[in-house]
From TrEMBL:
Stored InterPro entries: SQR/QFR_C/D, Succ_DH_anchor, SuccDH_FuR_B_TM-su
Annotated protein name in UniProt: Succinate dehydrogenase hydrophobic membrane anchor subunit
Organism of derivation: Microcella alkalica
UniProt cofactor(s): heme
Places the protein is found: Cell inner membrane
Taxonomic lineage from the root: Bacteria, Bacillati, Actinomycetota, Actinomycetes, Micrococcales
């Protein structure tokens, strides 16, 4: 027969160290709040302000990625959203995968894909060239020289 302790019964914690589940839970709440602001700001600037969706082309993106404010904004959006999503997927794996080897493989795949996407996304944001050599002047941003 299994007995259940009273709700306020103190728990003997023998494991010491950092509680990763607690910090993951706290990250999800904090990043969720920040992501709401970042996502709605992103959607407003891209879809509502100016000419709406008609304005989105290479020159629009190039203009945004030359402004340090938007570089930081997009970097925060990328990192918070990817880590938030990966943490959510990690929680799903922990909840539904019962075999330890399968769980470990899925955690490895999740961590690897998240790391690759973070590295590639960050590289795109910080190494983007708004004025590529040999590009059609009609397609590049107006601040690019036509030399």
């Amino acid at each position: 027969m299994t007995t259940i302790d009273a709700p306020r019964t103190p728990v003997n914690r023998t494991r010491r160290g950092v509680n990763l589940e607690k910090w993951g839970w706290m990250y999800m709440r904090a990043s969720g709040v920040v992501l709401v602001v970042l996502i709605f700001g992103h959607l407003f600037v891209n879809l509502v302000a100016g000419e709406g969706v008609k304005q989105i082309d290479f020159a629009f993106v190039a203009g945004k990625l030359t402004d340090p404010f938007w570089i930081v904004w997009d970097t925060l959006l990328l990192w918070l959203a990817l880590i938030h999503g990966a943490n959510g997927m990690r929680t799903l794996v922990n909840d539904y995968v019962t075999k330890p080897k399968v769980r470990a493989a899925l955690h490895f795949a999740l961590a690897s894909s998240t790391a690759v996407l973070l590295i590639l996304g960050t590289l795109v944001i910080y190494t983007f060239d708004p004025c590529p050599a040999g590009a059609d002047p009609e397609l590049v941003a107006s601040f690019c020289s036509t030399l």
